[in-house]
Design goal:
Shape: elongated
Strand content: 15-25%
Radius of gyration: 42 Å
Structural class: alpha+beta
Number of domains: 4
Order of helices and strands: HEEEEHHEEEHEEEHEHEEHHHH
Length: 359
């Protein structure tokens, strides 16, 4: 039997114990040290505790109350309510989601991060085909992922010079391995986004060449300012250094015909005609001495202008970087001393690399 002194001793200890209510009849009571909690059920002044003291004495005394039960009785209206926390759910970090032209893509790093949240235990890659000249330099890899619960996922990935960026075309096996793992982890993570590493080039995101064509249509040619030297004889010019076929038409620097009506030219006097012929002969001799062929073109071969593919790449990169056409023109004038439309092939390649590296 429990003595009065023991009951009093337990009651004194119960005064300092912390009580947490889970629901109407279930509680948790902290130990005296505050390191653990004992689960207590208390209904209709009858309690049941998980502590050793209650388990030892409840068989001999059905009315036995340990200090944890006494703590609930003493704090019936002064206990804390338990707050249940929401379970943490695996989620793809938004930092690994990239949007290009309105489409969402995820990075391989994000897929791997989410896989570890879902307790990824192993990720293996097997090479199914090595690249060679016989198979068109096509590398094929197979990836297999397994979780801690035993679930397995597998998929394949391929890489060849035709579906890879030129910078990674020399690392086909590594690229095929990354693509295989990305596709495998997409199935494991239940992610519908295409991985950036699966794209052959960023231009694949842009639907064919329609946006690029629309961009080119918006670009207007830059007018070329013609400065006439004092005392020189004015001659009809169409803005590109060659004479127009019809002298009756006045062509402006933008290429638009201003005067379409044929007017009768004013006859020059014999003295003016002689002066004009003298000037023409002088200019022709000066042109021959300077190395020209007499037609306004230098004998030195000029470098080829940039190709249409390079021009599309420049416009696509500038649109993604938020660079206007005017800013592009200033950049080319500063770096190469020429307008954007007159960039050479080598200068265009250098300019494209500069745009790719810009933030």
């Amino acid at each position: 039997m429990t003595t009065v002194q023991e009951v009093q001793k337990r009651n004194n200890k119960a005064q300092h114990l912390r009580v947490i209510q889970v629901d109407g009849a279930d509680y948790f009571v902290e130990s005296e040290e505050g390191k653990i909690c004992y689960k207590v059920s208390y209904v209709d002044e009858k309690g049941n505790c998980s502590c050793g003291d209650f388990s030892k004495n409840c068989k001999a005394d059905p009315q036995f109350k340990c200090k944890h039960i006494l703590a609930i009785m003493n704090s019936e209206h002064d206990f804390e309510k338990a707050h249940f926390l929401e379970k943490v759910r695996p989620k793809l970090d938004e930092r690994f989601i990239i949007q290009v032209d309105g489409q969402d893509f995820c990075k391989y790093a994000g897929l791997l991060d989410l896989a570890h949240q879902k307790r990824l235990s192993s990720l293996d890659v097997e090479i199914l085909q090595y690249p060679s000249e016989q198979n068109g330099m096509l590398a094929i890899c197979k990836a297999k992922a397994q979780t801690a619960t035993g679930d397995t996922y597998s998929d394949v990935g391929d890489a060849c010079p035709a579906n890879c960026n030129s910078r990674v075309a020399k690392h086909l096996i590594r690229m095929a391995s990354t693509r295989a793992k990305a596709r495998c982890l997409r199935d494991m993570d239940n992610i519908g986004y295409t991985a950036l590493e699966e794209l052959g080039d960023i231009d694949e995101v842009i639907h064919n060449e329609q946006p690029a064509t629309a961009q080119r249509d918006k670009v207007k040619p830059f007018p070329k300012k013609i400065v006439k030297a004092e005392g020189s004889v004015s001659r009809p010019d169409n803005g590109n250094g060659t004479k127009p076929t019809d002298p009756a038409k006045d062509v402006s620097t933008t290429g638009a015909t201003v005067n379409k009506e044929v007017k009768e030219p004013v006859k020059e006097s014999a003295k003016d005609e002689k002066k004009t012929a003298t000037v023409n002969r002088t200019e022709k001799k000066a042109s021959e001495k300077s190395g020209n062929n007499g037609k306004g073109k230098a004998k030195v071969d000029t470098p080829p202008l940039m190709s249409e593919a390079q021009k599309r790449a420049v416009y696509n990169l500038s649109r993604r970087r938020g660079i206007s056409v005017e800013e592009l023109e200033k950049m080319t004038q500063t770096a190469y001393g020429v307008s954007l439309e007159t960039l050479s092939t080598s200068d265009a390649s250098s300019f494209i690399r500069q745009l790719q590296q810009s933030a």
